[in-house]
Amino acid sequence: xxxxxxxxxxxxxxxxxxxxxxxxxxxxxxxxxxxxxxxxxxxxxxxxxxxxxxxxxxxxxxxxxxxxxxxxxxxxxxxxxxxxxxxxxxxxxxxxxxxxxxxxxxxxxxxxxxxxxxxxxxxxxxxx
Amino acid sequence: xxxxxxxxxxxxxxxxxxxxxxxxxxxxxxxxxxxxxxxxxxxxxxxxxxxxxxxxxxxxxxxxxxxxxxxxxxxxxxxxxxxxxxxxxxxxxxxxxxxxxxxxxxxxxxxxxxxxxxxxxxxxxxxx
Amino acid sequence: xxxxxxxxxxxxxxxxxxxxxxxxxxxxxxxxxxxxxxxxxxxxxxxxxxxxxxxxxxxxxxxxxxxxxxxxxxxxxxxxxxxxxxxxxxxxxxxxxxxxxxxxxxxxxxxxxxxxxxxxxxxxxxxx
Amino acid sequence: xxxxxxxxxxxxxxxxxxxxxxxxxxxxxxxxxxxxxxxxxxxxxxxxxxxxxxxxxxxxxxxxxxxxxxxxxxxxxxxxxxxxxxxxxxxxxxxxxxxxxxxxxxxxxxxxxxxxxxxxxxxxxxxx
Amino acid sequence: xxxxxxxxxxxxxxxxxxxxxxxxxxxxxxxxxxxxxxxxxxxxxxxxxxxxxxxxxxxxxxxxxxxxxxxxxxxxxxxxxxxxxxxxxxxxxxxxxxxxxxxxxxxxxxxxxxxxxxxxxxxxxxxx
Amino acid sequence: xxxxxxxxxxxxxxxxxxxxxxxxxxxxxxxxxxxxxxxxxxxxxxxxxxxxxxxxxxxxxxxxxxxxxxxxxxxxxxxxxxxxxxxxxxxxxxxxxxxxxxxxxxxxxxxxxxxxxxxxxxxxxxxx
Lengths: 128, 128, 128, 128, 128, 128
What we know:
The structure is a homohexamer.
Chain A: H1 3-15, H2 20-27, H3 32-46, H4 54-68, H5 72-84, H6 89-98, H7 100-103, H8 105-121
Helix pairs in contact in A: 1-3, 4-5, 4-6, 4-8, 5-8, 6-8
């Protein structure tokens, strides 16, 4: 296990502790290196950088995946990660609502639907 | 209830009478203001404007959501709305087919699949 | 010259008479078949179809290219085409403004900027 | 049946023999011409062109649909087609992984998930 | 002037004081209502909401416009706004770099190029 | 200089020898690590992988950047890279034309326009 891998895993254990094994299992018998890249590049080299804390970084990712609208599973995982690193449900909701102005209302509504499903499961509704 | 809200609701009762409560229910305990924004901005301020009638506006929305390919639920709702304001099933189909030239064949085929599911439910098949 | 090519050219002479030669010149020494495909597929097979008239089809295309935001030259050509087949400047503007709700404000503003440049050149400002 | 249709069907029988009837059935009572366009334009006029063989063309399509992230059914069909025309499972996986650099990790992971589902069904796992 | 307009203008005077007149001038003789909508909806109703401060909201917008890659003028304006509300050049750069993982390297590099042009003009280079 | 950096630079000297310094210069005083990431991740870890050769990988990248339509500078660089690793101008053109079926005609035409500008500069027109 390389230092870079270990450094990325240390972040993932904070941000995505519930879903990290799921990703490795999914990729194991088809593209295990893609899982390694996820650990070694974004988590090891980006999420560890100075300048923005994990709380802000995960909120940005929630906003961007909402706007792109093409990665609902990953959006759910990053909403969970955003909560894990200190964002309140309300902060997550605000970041998603804001996307209505930059990617349209359907993108924002779909982001909220994904957040709601996770919040419900975690007993976080209603959001105040 | 503000005038803007009421004005938007008057449009939604014409365009989306079957699905409007569904959207409010979905957003109620997580982001009720997003529902209010949908009513007060696009429906109250855009769909009510002079220059294009509701029939043309809803057809445009069907085309755009087909091309973007990221909002299947909303595309179904807007196909329904397009029918509600006077578009024929054939006009809806034509707007979707046209997207093959601007967003590719997969986008157009996926739009047709969504239209077909709704048309089937409403007894509108086959489209002549 | 095939029948399909001739049929498409008959549409292009109506919709894009100012820019059609430009496209052929651009493609001539690198991908002339792509120009032929544009004539033979969208213009010959889609824009000629029953169910939607050219005026509505070109307005839809203006909306979609505004929403996608990746084809400014083609958006300008289709705004011109939309005018050529009977849309008023106001109808074009309305279709673009509507995109703010489905693709965000930057997309709509960029569409208006492209329309404005063309309208200015054609002496169509201000739009009432 | 036109020559163009027949020419396109000859390619589809090679690339998509398992799914071609499914597409025609889907479109039959709503937009049969869209099915005809798929045969007559991309399959008859593009996939038959000199300059790139079917193996490379299908691999490119797999990469592009992975990057766009809006057409999971068609991505699965084109992964199948890519295998049918001589790409190895590993080549398909490599094209998808490469998309992480141009469309982000979620797009690449979603592409792999679709490939995995098909490879599993076809007994092609693990990919070496 | 409505209360909503005034409320939005109060935000814009903080975030975009250098470019706000430019937007109104651009839209004035073609789509003045679109300018009003920008003030009355995102700035009056979203940027004023509790839950996220302006500093975080503008950073999110910088990230999203970088990822979408279709609005370079607005990205430059929002980078400027992000600085105006307290983000350091380094925070802006970090938000843009992070997009390489979700929208690919070209999107991130293009975002940096736009930031660099603005930072140069404002004497903010090199970024430490 | 890490082994990973060196490994990536060895690829870039083959694929992008004309433009690599330009990218480093652009990023130097604002986001030098982003340049390092480009070398260490896609070029060192993806383009060096078994399973697809550089010729195929660069052609795929040309196709994808054409389809996305948001990275014209990088598309030009990758067209150049595609030629540098053995693709003929015709192969590049074919990959771009194919995108008309998956991302629409405007995307394909814009890709051709970028290719044409580079081919002209390099004396590669007309393409046979």
